[in-house]
């Protein structure tokens, strides 16, 4: 049995489908039974903050996909770190033979937002978890659907990426890699850096978005500090704005521009291009209010 956490999320819903298509036994860990029913697989209702619900969901489970959203701290700590460390401990106690952990591109100690959080979780997994495999994806193409890709104002993309390029990846490709690893327990002790097939700057991203949704989307670039001030004025917490600006400066310096062969190596096919993602999601992008005027 494979337990999928974050099953209703951008990666999880693709992963559940991929595993079902392979006729593998899947149990989704969901907070909302209605969302669980919509997935079309066995599901366990619970919450990562409710240890007994997770322990129950882990009964009879061989492999776990570990993914949760959220970097916003509650009472000064990131819930993701505590939740995932606890999930790792429970998985070990349950005798799980593999945890495939969804991490982030280039995690590091003290990194901003999720970068440091995932590093701390990875360390816990390596030091005290069950056998592990780590996926370190670059930024998600799906961020353009959820509004996380760039903060938008007046229908344009705003950021502080400069000319820095990013090798955005489609969450369906991340899910395909996870499915391959969970299907046969491969990749134990391995870390895979996952990227899309090309690195794009945000002027190019805006031009391609424009062509897809049929109106002009401009990319408006700001200095990192200026951008942090704009975000703060919009109600984003000051600490988050400052951290986001620092991460954007890293992007501007080219730290998210590399491409890797990991998706092809794991799945046997090339990762989806940004244009393919845009075409597949054209209607949703046209309707997305964060890109609407
Ligand atoms: N966005 C990017 O570009 C990017 C790039 C690299 C790595 N990442 C990492 O990817 C991960 C996923 O981020 P995302 O924003 O795309 O989220 P997501 O996977 O689309 O959604 C979060 C999932 O976690 C579930 N969840 C949240 N809190 C939970 C809890 N307390 N108990 C049980 N389930 C819970 C949510 O369930 P509900 O349906 O109930 O809300 C949802 O299924 C994060 O760790 C992030 O750091 C993101």
TrEMBL record:
Domain of life: Bacteria
Organism: Spongiactinospora rosea
Protein name in UniProt: SDR family NAD(P)-dependent oxidoreductase
InterPro entries: Ergot_Alk_Oxidoreductase, NAD(P)-bd_dom_sf, NmrA-like
Ranges of residues in domain NmrA-like: 2-278
């Amino acid at each position: 049995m494979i337990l999928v956490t974050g099953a209703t999320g951008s990666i999880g819903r693709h992963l559940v489908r991929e595993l079902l298509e392979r006729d593998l036994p899947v149990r989704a860990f969901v907070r909302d039974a209605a969302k669980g029913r919509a997935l079309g697989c066995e599901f366990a209702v619970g919450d990562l903050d409710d240890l007994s619900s997770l322990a129950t969901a882990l009964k009879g489970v061989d492999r776990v996909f570990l993914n949760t959203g959220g970097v916003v701290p509650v009472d000064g700590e990131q819930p993701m770190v505590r939740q995932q460390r606890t999930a790792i401990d429970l998985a070990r106690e349950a005798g799980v033979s593999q945890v495939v952990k969804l991490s982030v591109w280039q995690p590091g100690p003290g990194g901003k937002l999720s970068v440091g959080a995932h590093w701390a979780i990875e360390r816990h997994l390596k030091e005290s978890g069950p056998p592990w495999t780590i996926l370190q994806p670059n930024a998600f193409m799906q961020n353009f659907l959820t509004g996380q890709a760039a903060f938008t104002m007046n229908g344009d993309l705003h950021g502080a990426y400069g000319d820095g390029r990013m090798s955005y990846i489609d969450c369906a490709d991340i899910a395909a890699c996870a499915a391959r690893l969970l299907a046969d327990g491969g990749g134990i002790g391995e870390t895979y850096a996952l990227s899309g097939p090309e690195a794009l700057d945000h002027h190019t991203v805006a031009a391609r978005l424009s062509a897809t949704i049929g109106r002009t989307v401009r990319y408006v670039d700001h200095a990192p500090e200026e951008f942090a001030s704009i975000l703060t004025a919009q109600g984003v917490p000051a600490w988050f704005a400052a951290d986001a600006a620092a991460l954007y400066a890293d992007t501007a310096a080219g730290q998210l521009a590399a491409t890797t062969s990991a998706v092809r190596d794991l799945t046997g096919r090339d990762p989806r291009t940004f244009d393919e993602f845009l075409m597949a999601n054209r209607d949703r992008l046209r309707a997305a209010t964060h890109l609407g005027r």
